[in-house]
Specification:
Blueprint lengths: L1 H23 L4 H21 L6 H24 L6 E3 L6 E2 L2 E2 H18 L6 H25 L3 E3 L5 H21 L6 H23 L1
Antiparallel strand pairs: 1-4, 2-3
Length: 211
């Protein structure tokens, strides 16, 4: 299984490396922006293929996190009081009331990746959730300028510190819900996808800052 996992991780790494070039090169950018929703959903699906312990409870809680994440984003856009004042572009695909359906899946996916990485590393759910929330907020720090540049979403003004605080709190609550209600298992592929995506956004973050 490790050999198969290594091959999938290599393929995913190559896809994201090509993706960096695709977003940077103007002629390729429209294609790679169009592929973004498929990439997010595909990475999540691949991570599940290698999950060692499926359970109805675990899947149900992640589905609930997806629904809650979507509801949180809807409330955030409608009120401007949670993350700050922002609105979604077209890159993340179709949605409801201006909120892409994919954003709920992305909350579930990020919670899944981080929980899979941290599973079994401590007996204290709060400690795991705090560490995972820090990882998810770090991810968002590098994601935000990239998201704005490529029409994921847009801020009505500078990116507010409130956004990162809300990301941390929401991530902590979602992870606490997952760790407290089910027993996430270590999933090497899912954990590696977190780091691959983080490096992807770090590379584009650096390019945006330079150019």
């Amino acid at each position: 299984m490790n050999r198969v996992e290594n091959r999938f991780i290599a393929v995913i790494s190559l896809i994201y490396a090509v993706g960096i070039a695709g977003f940077i090169i103007p002629a390729l950018r429209p294609l790679f922006i169009w592929l973004t929703p498929y990439n997010i959903a595909g990475a999540f699906a691949v991570a599940w293929l290698f999950h060692p312990k499926w359970s109805v409870g675990h899947v149900a809680v992640l589905a609930l996190i997806g629904v809650l994440g979507f509801a949180l984003e809807w409330a955030g856009v409608q009120t401007g009081q949670i993350f700050g004042s922002y609105y979604y572009g077209k890159t993340l695909g179709p949605g409801w009331n201006g909120i892409p359906y994919l954003i709920g899946l992305n909350w579930a996916a990020m919670t899944f990746y981080v929980s899979s990485l941290l599973a079994g590393r401590s007996k204290h759910n709060a400690l795991l959730s705090l560490g995972g929330a820090a990882m998810m907020t770090l991810y968002d720090f590098f994601l935000e300028p990239v998201a704005v540049r490529f029409d994921f979403w847009h801020w009505r003004g500078p990116i507010p510190m409130q956004n990162y605080m809300a990301w941390f709190v929401a991530s902590f609550l979602f992870l606490m819900l997952l760790f407290s209600s089910s027993k996430p298992s270590h999933n090497r592929v899912a954990g590696t996808i977190y780091f691959i995506q983080l490096l992807f956004f770090m590379a584009l973050f650096a390019w945006i800052r330079l150019f």
